C-alpha cells in the first residue's frame, strides 16, 4: 500500500468518471507511477478538489482510496503547514518559513485521517509505504492503530540539519511521527545523519549504524536515491514522432543556435531567478548573443494558491519580460518562457533539442529532470549543468557542477558547457548514462523494499522475478 498526499489521478478525469493515471508535474507521482501501474496495490491519497469526491474505480491494478479534504483543510494542511512551514524550512530556509499555530492542528487532524484510511483498508501484516513531508505524522499514528503492519516512510525532499529543524515549534511530535516507521528512507546519507542527531538531542535516543533505538523499538534509516524509468524515457526519446518533433523545435529555434534549456516546477527552490540573472549578465557582457544562443525556460505552474508562489511567478515573468525587452530582436527573443504543462513526449523532444540543460536548484532532494535529460540523450551529446545542491549531483559527478549562489561561477560554468568539445561532452554523458542504467526507478524500489522487509518475504521473491514491480504485487493483500 502507498499512502501519499495525492492520488495519481487527473482531476478532470476524476470528475467525469474516466480515470487515468495522472502524470502530475510533481516528481513523487512520476517516480511511483512506474512501479505501481501494473501491481495490485492500494493507493491512499487526496483526489484533489473539495469534499468526499466521486467514487473512484480501480485504475489498472491499483485500488484508489480517496481521502477527503475541505477547503479549510487544504489551506491549513497543504498550503499552510506542509508548503509554507516544512517545505521552505527543509530547503535550507531559502525562503522564510511561516509558523502559524492553527495550521499545525489541521496538519495533525489530516494526518490522522490518512492514517485511519490506511488502517481501514490494509490487509493483515501488510507493508505500507508512506510518502513525504505532508504525512510525517502518519507512521506513528498508523503504528498505534495497526501494530501488525510493516511501515516504511520515505522523504523525497531534504531533511535539514538540527540548526534548522530546531526552529520548528512542534519539532518533537514531527520527529516522533516519522520514527513510528520501521524504515525511514532519505535521498542522501546526510539526511539520515541529521535524523540520528535530532533523535539523540530531542528524544534521548541511542543511535547506531543506520539505527535509532527509541521507545523500546529500533528504527532503521538509510539513503535510497530515487530515480526515473530510464527505459521509458530512452524509448520515448527514440520514437520517430519525438525525433521529428525535436527536429521541428530545432528548426523553429534556429538551426545554428545554441539552445539552453531549463524545466522546473515554478518553485523558489529551483533557482530560476538566479539563473535568469546569470543569463542577463552574460547577454549584457556580450559573452552570449541573441543571434547565436537562446534560452528555453519551461516553468510549470505549481501551488498557485500559495501567495509566495504567485509572487515568484510575477517576479520571474517580470524578469523574462525585461530581458526580452532589452536584448531580444524582432522574431528573436532572448528567452522562450513557457508556463505550461507538457506531456512526456513533448518533454523528451525538448531534452533532445537542448545543447545545454541547466538544472540549478538552490536545494533539491534529488531532481528528476536532470536524470530525464541524461536518459533522453541516446546521441551521447548535450551538456548538463547541475547544482551541487541537488541530490542528483552526488550521483552524476561528471555533470558541470555549479554553486548557483555564486553568480560568477554560474556564468563561467554556463560558458564552459556552451563551449565544451564534443569529445568531452561524450565522455561526461557516457559516465552519467552508465550510472543511470544501473540505478533506475526499479532499482530504487528494490533497494527500499528489500531493506523494509527484514523478514525476507518480499526480498526472497526479488531475485526470482524479472520485474521488481511484481515483488510488491505478489505479496499478500498489501
Ligand atoms: P519536484 O520538486 O516536483 O519533486 P523534480 O524531481 O524535478 O521536482 O520532478 C519534477 C517532475 O515534473 C519531473 O518528472 C518533470 O519531468 C516534471 N515536469 C517539470 N516540468 C513539467 C512540465 N512543464 N510539464 C510536465 N511535467 C513537468 C520532489 C522533490 C525532488 C525529487 C522528487 C522525487 O522536490 O527533489 O526528485 O520529488 O523524489
Automatic annotation (TrEMBL):
<protein>
    <submittedName>
        <fullName>Trehalose-6-phosphate synthase</fullName>
    </submittedName>
</protein>
<comment type="similarity">
    <text>Belongs to the glycosyltransferase 20 family.</text>
</comment>
<dbReference type="InterPro" id="IPR001830">
    <property type="entry name" value="Glyco_trans_20"/>
</dbReference>
<dbReference type="Pfam" id="PF00982">
    <property type="entry name" value="Glyco_transf_20"/>
</dbReference>
